[in-house]
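[Q] Does anyone have a clean C-alpha cell version of this?
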Amino acid sequence: MDDYTSIINLISNVGFPIVIAIYLLHGFEKKLDLLIEHIQKLTLTIEKHIVRK
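[A] Here you go.
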C-alpha cells in the first residue's frame, strides 16, 4: 500500500507526464540491457563459428 501512496505523491508533485516518462525509461533500460547481453552472446557464437572454419 505504501508503494501506491508514493506513486500518487510523485504524480501530484511532478506531474503525470514526468512519471510516465520515468516509468517508460526504466522499462526501456532493462530491455536494452537484455538486448546488449544477447548481442554479446551472438557475437561470441559467430566468432566461435568463424574459428572452426
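[Q] Thanks! Anything notable?
[A] DSSP finds two helices and no strands in the chain.
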